[in-house]
Amino acid sequence: MTGQAGQTGQAPEGWRPRALRDGEEPDPRFTLANERTFLAWIRTSLGLTAGAVAMEAFAGDEIPEIVRTPLACILLVLAAVLAIVAFRRWIRIEASMRHQRPLPMPQASILLVLGISIGAVLLIVAILGGTFA
Amino acid sequence: MSTPRQRRIGVEPRAVPPDAGLAAERTSLSWARTWAVVGVNIILIAKLVAETSVFWASVFSLLTVVPLLALLRVQRHHERRVGRFVRGAEVPQTRAAHNVGLVVLVVVMATCGLVAVLVSLSN
């Protein structure tokens, strides 16, 4: 990691990945918008973690362990993967803006929808299977 | 025909401030919301981890100190950045290291939760 001086010779801007050193500096408003989008993905990921942990910590015997544990594991793994994908997407968007390229597709949405769908299907199967009886 | 009386001296009525879209404020609130959710997660995971063992509970309590220190540093840097944007319409790029730190924090918390779930399953 190397410190890098800002273009104006002011405070150092800190370590930057290679993708964020090329091209032209984008409009500051777009940089901040990209940052907010990254934070929104991180909060989504933290929401999944909170849901999984709350289910495990507070559901007690309301939800049987055979459903609760796999569901919590799916949500926690999805949360970790989503956080990493969100960072990758932040870099890709920033790089696209620096080179005036079209913004990449939100692949993380597909991942999120798939994960939540699998969790929901698992819960439905458990309910229909009579695990709550 | 008289011109309308100017109420504020020195302000050009047609001037658009650099942060007309309130991007700085929205980003600051976004960071604040993120830290609030991090806090909620720490409390929830602490509850789950405390049920497993004293060892894991102490490891997790050590891990929670890091985000609290990071919070102060990231927040100070953010205030400086958006301050420059509001005054001078320029913003230094997001610190990649801060975002990496946030992602690592989320992954660590999810892993702690996963370990706690699996440990409680085996008990």
From TrEMBL, chain A:
Specify the protein's topology with respect to the membrane. Answer: Multi-pass membrane protein
So which domain of life are we looking at?
Bacteria
Q: Does the keyword ATP-binding apply?
A: no
Where is this gene product found?
Cell membrane
Q: Which UniProt keywords apply?
A: Cell membrane, Membrane, Transmembrane, Transmembrane helix
Q: Which Pfam families match?
A: DUF202 (PF02656)
Polar residues composition-biased segments: 1-10
Bilayer-spanning residue ranges: 38-60, 66-87, 108-132
Keyword Metal-binding assigned: no
The main location class comes to membrane
Residue ranges annotated for the DUF202 domain, each copy included: 29-94
Mark out the compositionally biased spans (Basic and acidic residues).
15-28
Cellular component aspect of the GO annotation? plasma membrane
Q: Where is this region: Disordered?
A: 1-28
Q: What is this protein called?
A: DUF202 domain-containing protein
UniProtKB/TrEMBL annotation, chain B:
* Top-rank taxon, per record: Bacteria
User: Which UniProt keywords are listed?
Assistant: Membrane, Transmembrane, Transmembrane helix
Transmembrane stretches, by residue range?
31-49, 55-75, 96-121
Determine if Transmembrane is one of this entry's keywords. Answer: yes
Q: What is this protein called?
A: DUF202 domain-containing protein
Instruction: State the organism of origin.
Output: Dietzia maris
